[in-house]
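FAQ: What does the model actually see?

It sees only this:
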Amino acid sequence: MKIQLTKLAHARSGDKGDTANIGIIALRDDFYLLLVRNVTAVRVKEHFKGICRGAVDRFELPNLCALNFLLHESLGGGGTLSLMTDAQGKTFSTALLRMEIEVDEAEARQLGLNQ
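And it is asked to produce this:
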């Protein structure tokens, strides 16, 4: 079954130059492994296709049950160089939480996600 990340995590994002920085934090500790398995750098790059022109780096923070992503070349050069309406990464977290991941129905039931 497909589950949107909004049911599993909350997120924050920001920017530095032309790089967007997104942190997603599991709402519950037992959701963290789902995030680790399913929210890969490749999936995030695909989710931001057309926006992220550079590499995506992923960092695992197991002590926080969180993942951090750097999306290089995503802001049209950054706030001072870009012609984009909003050349900052503040809205990227909301966009990432709209990503859907595939979760086995038995695991979803065990985690209380199939309601």
